[in-house]
Sequence to fold (238 residues):
Amino acid sequence: MPPELNRAVPRPVRLTVTGKIVAAAAILSVLEAFVFGAWLYRIGQRQQQEASEFRRMAVKTTGRITKVHRGGKGRLRYHYQFEAEGKSYAGSFSTSRRAYAIGEPIEVNYLPGRPESNWATGHQVTGVPPYLGPIVAAMSLAVAAILGLSLRSQRRLLEEGRAAIATVLRVEPAHLKGVRYRVHYEFPLLSGARQTGRFDLPRDPAPAPGTPIVVIYDPDNPRRQRRYPFPLVRVSQD
Fold:
């Protein structure tokens, strides 16, 4: 048994280098949620307002489809030309369906004095949608919560958990991304009962059946357990 686990509970615990990185990532995720999410929301609102103003100001005319080709993800890109303010201008848009033939007329919108700013009716680019900001914020907060809960779970288990010597029962090849082996083990409880558990290994070597390993478990809920040492926290030597 590692000597640091013989210390009285609650054990003094501090973050490992990996734990500090995870904690920093959690803090950055919270900052990203409020800063980047709010920035995206404001950008989206401004671009939507500009698109609405452009639609209000736009002059309509008729253009002609000049070329069509298949773009990415199976979408079709149509190119068109139109005359405005004594000059010829061009534009394009993409769609997932075949809608026009070459030479076919199409309604085009352009800004007076700026015909180079144009779009085919029904295909105006409106920019970033405002709802993207709250979605990004929610995703960042979810990441922060997951990281924070991982830190909290390992910290509490190492502070309050009971150490035991477990025995490897069997090792199975695992066909999961980033996992090479699944190791099953068993350890005794103070009541005399036996509790089983498992952990995944990403690489060789895998322990042989019968190998002793150290686990820490929650005395009130032995199913809450983890192989020692933990990746994010360790017992402080202070």
